[in-house]
Write a structure and sequence with these properties.
Layout lengths: L10 E4 L5 H12 L3 E6 L2 H13 L5 E4 L5 H14 L5 E4 L14 H29 L2 E6 L12 H21 L4 E8 L21 H9 L12 H8 L10 E4 L12
Parallel strand pairs: 1-2, 1-4, 2-3, 4-5, 5-6, 6-7
Helix pairs in contact: 1-7, 3-4, 4-5
The structure holds NADP nicotinamide-adenine-dinucleotide phosphate and D-gluconic acid.
NADP nicotinamide-adenine-dinucleotide phosphate binds next to helix 1 and strand 2.
């Protein structure tokens, strides 16, 4: 049974894994036996991430690469496959959010969010697919969101991108399943990372952020998720245990999507 979830002998590329959810997923993969490749955008984050991985006993290989830049991505994948090994597992984790009311959002801001959260997963998946097709084996995991299913005020670009990422996931699954490549999504609920820090800020009067209070009423688990909550589901989607799971979005949300919300 342990072998079913082992990633021994595999190489995993986790984008945007200098910290946050990507770091937790990469750490889980390393603990399951995989060699780790990751990227971020700047030298400072790269240096800190390499030190953090080393402190966790992980010899990760890091690259500075903007996932929206197709040439940089192709170069990173080529370098990684030469220096570490063929990419067996890709996690499209890198992402941003801009919380702006849609009628006030510029087209440039909208495009930037879609570029990073939707076009980049296409670019990176396209870079690793040829090798996976040749080896007739591969795992692609796209980090989706509650906003792949739900909308809310101020996140129009993010929801459009994450909704699109859900369908890109299904389409990669459809087009490449015949090569024994499985493409699935992992849909975190609300996770305590830098991306959601603004939603958890303690108010001047010492009270919890209104969104924080709202979210607790919407979450059966009655807590924010931690990046560590994603480690097991991510290992499942990267391992042999999910070889017949394809085009599925695995929501890891403490029950948010199942729940109408606690009566005030
Ligand atoms: P985070 O803490 O803001 O980390 C985002 C990561 O993405 C950083 O490592 C960042 O790297 C990287 N990144 C952003 N733009 C990039 C680009 N153009 N090229 C390369 N790397 C880039 O976010 P998180 O909370 O860990 O979220 C990670 C993923 O999970 C995102 O896709 C997010 O949408 C999704 N998600 C988050 C939650 C949540 O509640 N936190 C829930 C559902 C889904 P640098 O800035 O260092 O370059
Ligand atoms: C927001 C949050 C969410 C989370 C996540 C939920 O402002 O609503 O940032 O979008 O990041 O995507 O699954």
């Amino acid at each position: 049974m342990e072998q079913l979830f082992s990633l021994e002998g595999k190489t995993a590329l986790v984008t945007g894994a200098a910290y946050g959810i990507g770091y937790a997923i990469a750490k889980a993969y390393a603990q399951a036996g995989a060699k780790i490749v990751f990227n971020c955008r700047g030298e400072e984050h790269l240096k800190k991430a390499l030190a953090d991985y080393e402190a966790d006993g992980i010899s990760a290989k890091g690259y500075i690469c903007d996932v929206t830049d197709e040439e940089q991505v192709k170069q990173m994948v080529s370098d990684a496959e030469r220096e570490v090994g063929p990419i067996d597992i890709l996690v499209n984790n890198a992402g941003i959010i801009k919380r702006i009311p849609m009628h006030e959002m510029s087209a440039g801001d909208f495009r930037q969010v879609v570029d990073i959260d939707l076009t980049a997963p296409f670019i990176v998946a396209k870079a690793v697919l040829p090798g996976m097709m040749e080896r007739r084996s591969g795992k692609i995991i796209n980090v989706c969101s509650m906003m792949s299913e739900l909308g809310r005020e101020t996140v129009s670009a993010y929801a459009a991108a994450k909704g699109g990422l859900k369908m890109l996931t299904k389409n990669i699954a459809s087009e490449y399943g015949m090569y024994n490549i499985q493409c699935n999504g992992i849909g975190p609920g609300y996770i305590a990372t830098p991306q959601t820090a603004p939603l958890r800020e303690i108010q001047p009067d010492g009270s919890r952020h209104p969104f924080d209070q709202f979210l607790m009423a919407k979450t059966p688990a009655n807590r924010w998720g931690e990046p560590e909550d994603l480690m097991g589901p991510a290992i499942f989607l990267a391992s042999r245990a999910s070889d017949f799971v394809n085009g599925h979005i695995l929501y890891v949300d403490g029950g948010i999507l199942a729940y109408i919300g606690k009566q005030p």
